[in-house]
Design brief:
Four Helix Bundle (Hemerythrin (Met), subunit A), mainly alpha, globular, 5 helices
Length: about 130
């Protein structure tokens, strides 16, 4: 699957699903983190096919997250998240080119923290609302 195909798949899910959009973001973070960990391991193991597939999926999810930002919300927050997603996307593309799993570890750590914050802080707020 190419990054473009992954992007279109996730975009279609965002558009056509009846699941709460907050839950979709949670699932996207979990998917991005899972594929990032898989890519990291594949780079260490020199498994080129798995690395490329996993990095393409991470890229697709990052694109979906970036492009699904609600531009009608707090401008500063949207711009921050957009820049963060672009940074992670750039690091993912570089990891594919350079095969440097140590540098790609930054992406894994960011996605891990972002997923944790989203699930503990944001989703928790929805449960009590």
């Amino acid at each position: 699957m190419t990054a473009n195909e992954a992007y279109n798949t996730y975009k279609n899910v965002l558009i056509s699903t009846t699941v709460d959009k907050m839950q979709i973001v949670s699932l996207l973070y979990e998917g991005a983190l899972g594929f990032a960990k898989k890519a990291y391991k594949a780079m260490k193991d020199e498994d080129e096919e798995t690395k490329i597939d996993s990095l393409n999926r991470v890229s697709g999810i990052l694109l979906a997250l970036r492009d699904s930002l609600d531009r009608n919300q707090d401008v500063e927050t949207v711009e921050y998240l957009e820049a963060l997603y672009n940074f992670l996307l750039t690091r993912t593309i570089e990891a594919n080119k350079d095969n440097n799993y140590e540098d790609f570890g930054v992406v894994v750590r960011y996605l891990d923290k972002m997923s944790e914050i989203w699930n503990k802080e944001i989703m928790k707020k929805d449960e009590t609302a």
